[in-house]
C-alpha cells in the first residue's frame, strides 16, 4: 500500500491556508505543491502497475497448476481403464501435489486481485483529489495575483497622495502662477509703452497741422 500524497499532506487538509500565510510567494508554493502531488500520482501509478503485473503472474501460475492437476486426473482415469493401477496411483499423487499448489496460488491470486482493485480505487481517489486541488490552486493563484495588483495600486496611490508629492505639486502650481503673473505684467508694460508712443505720434501730428495752417495764412490761402 502507498500513502496518499506523502509529500503534500498539509496541502490536502486544513493546514493549507496557514502554509500559504508563511510562504513568501504563494503562487510558487502552490505550483510546488502540485508538482509534488503529480510525483506522488506517478509513483502510485507505478505501484498499481506492479501490483497488476503480480496479479497476472499469479493468475498464470494458478491456471497452469490447475490445468496440470486436471490433466493428471484424466490420466489417472485412463490408467484405471487400462488396468494399470500403479500408473493411476502415481498420476493421482502428482495430481494431489499440483492441486495443493493450485489452491495455494489461488489464495495468493485472490489477495493480489483484491489489492489491485483497492490500489486502483485509491489511485482514482488521488487523481480526483488532485483535480480538486488543481481547481483550488487556480482560484488561489488568481486571488494572489489580484492581491498583488491591488497592493501595487495602493502603493502608487499612496505615493501620489503623500505630503511630499502634494508639496511638489503645489510648488509647481506656484511657479505656473508666477509665470502667468510675469506674462500679464509684461503685457501691461507693453500696452503702456504703446500708449505713450501713440501720444507722441499725436503730438507730432498736431505740430504739422499748426505748421500747415501757418503756411496757408502766409500765402493767403485761408
Q: What structural keywords apply?
A:
0% strand; mainly alpha; single chain; 222 residues
Average pLDDT across residues? 80
In DSSP terms (H or I, runs of 4 or more residues), the helix count works out at 4
Global outline = rod-shaped
Which sheet architecture does the biggest sheet show? none
Low-confidence stretches: 7-14
Helix content: over 70%
Strand content: under 5%
Structural class: mainly alpha
Spell the H/E element sequence: HHHH
Radius of gyration: 53 Å
As for the number of domains, it is 2
Family: Belongs to the PspA/Vipp/IM30 family.
Pfam family, one: PspA_IM30
Biased composition (Acidic residues): 198-212
Biased composition (Basic and acidic residues): 69-113, 121-148, 163-182
Describe this structure as you would to a colleague.
Residues 69-222 are annotated as: Disordered. The chain is mostly helical. The protein has 2 domains: 6-161; 166-222. Helix content is 89%, strand content 0%. It is rod-shaped. The model is unreliable at 7-14 (pLDDT under 50).
Topology:
Layout: H1 16-22, H2 26-81, H3 85-161, H4 163-219
Helix pairs in contact: 2-3
In brief, what are we looking at here?
With 222 residues, the protein is mainly α.
